[in-house]
Request: fold
Amino acid sequence: MDELDWDEFAPAYYQNQLESRTTVVEDVIAFLRSKKVLPVSDLIDVAGGAGRYLPMAKEVESYKLLDFSTEMLRFAQQEADKLGVKNVQMMKRSFEDFLENEESVEVIFTAANPALDNTQKLERMLKKMDQACVIIRVVSSKDDLFLPLEKRLGIYEDDPMTSKDLMDQFEAYLDQSDYSYQVKEFTYVLKEEITRSLMEDYYEEYKEDQRLADFLDQHFLQDDQISTTRLTYRLLLIQQKSTPRWHK
Reply:
C-alpha cells in the first residue's frame, strides 16, 4: 500500500483502534516498565499509525511518532489531544527515510509495521538504537465461527497483519547476532454475540450456496451464536549482549 492507500484506509483503521477490546497497550507498557525500558527520556514510535500506543508518551520525556500517512498522523494528533500529552512530536516520514538517517535514539518502538518485512531492515534499524528496540506484531488470530465457515466456502485467506513466520525469522536472525533479546506474548480471548442475520448479510454473495445454509442451520438452531476469538501478540525486546537472554 502506498501513501494514498493508507490515507484512504486511515478512518477505518482508526475506528478499529477505538473499538479494540484488548488491553495490549496497557500490558505492553507494564511489561516495558518491569524490564526498566520505561520510563525513558527519548523514544520514537516508528510507523506509529493512528497513535494506538500514545499512552506510552506518559512514560517518556520526548516522544516522536513517525508515519508517512498524513491521515494517520491526523488521527494520531487527535489521540494525543485526547490524552493531553504535550511531549509528542508528529513526524511525516517513511520507514526507509528513518533507516537512512544516521540519527540514533534511546528506544525504538514499532508495532504492526508493514514496512519492516525482512531481516536486512531489522539489522539496519537495530544499528539506530542506543538502549532498546521493541517490535510487536499479531502472530495468531483465530475465531471459531467465521474461520470455519470461510474454510468451508473455500475463501479463507491468511490475515496479512498476522505475521508469525516473520517474527520467527527475526528471532532466528537474533540468535546469530550480537544482540540479546527477550520474548513476551500477550493472548486475549474475545467473545462477541453474532446473529444469523449478520452472517447472512456479511456473506450475501453466497446466499444461494447450500454450504452457507447448512453451516448457519448447524450453528444457529435457536439462539444467537457467541463467537470466540483468540488473539496473540508477540513482543521482541532487543538490547545489547550485556543484557541476559531469556526465552518463552
